[in-house]
Amino acid sequence: MAISKDRSIGFASVRTSKKMSRTINFYLKSYNITSEQWSVLRTLSEHDHISQKELSIRADKDQATLTKILDLLEKSEVIKRKVNPSDRRSFLIMITEKGKKLVEEVAPYLEEIFSKIINGIDEESLHIYLKVLQQIEDNADSLLEDVNN
Fold first, then answer.
1. How far apart are the first and last CA of the chain?
2. How many domains does the chain have?
3. Residue pair 104/69 in contact by the 8 Å Cβ criterion
């Protein structure tokens, strides 16, 4: 009997993603930040002074989740919201100096952790893995677009 794609690809992908998130969360604990918060802060460090909607797209977070994350990051004083001068109903999200320092400290640390996660995997295999992941993501996006149209 053949193993289903749901089991071999779906469950394996979800299981691996959860294990990586737990690992990253464990190592980020000492910085008082979660992997979800980190992904938003890192995105903001690359694209500062952007609207919450744009940040939502770039960080791949729905609006409700992003709002909760931004509330926590603002409370930690690593980001701040400013009324958008071109649209008073929206905010521009900015990284603070404290946030920039946190990114400078955490980014190299996480690079070390990810180096350990991919330990023993050669460059060619990693390249193929990333290419396959991108194709799976593109296919999933197409399926979602079909449903939404």
1. 37
2. 2
3. no
- Please state, as a whole number, how many other Cβ atoms lie within 10 Å of the Cβ of residue 73: 24
**DSSP for 20-39?**
HHHHHHHHHGGGT--HHHHH
Q: Where do we find the tokens 């289903």? A: 4
Residue type, position 3, single letter: I
Q: What's the CATH code of the domain at 44?
A: 1.10.10.10
Taking the model in full, what pTM does it have?
0.86
Same domain for 57 and 107, yes or no, is yes
Length of the chain: 149
User: What pLDDT, in 10s, does the model give residues 83-104?
Assistant: 888 888 888 999 999 999 999 9
Please choose, from the candidates 38, 40, 1, 35, the residue with its C-alpha nearest in 3D space to the C-alpha of residue 18.
Answer: 35
Amino acid at 83: V
Whether residues 106 and 143 fall in one domain? no
Determine the structural domain holding residue 140 and report its residue range.
119-149
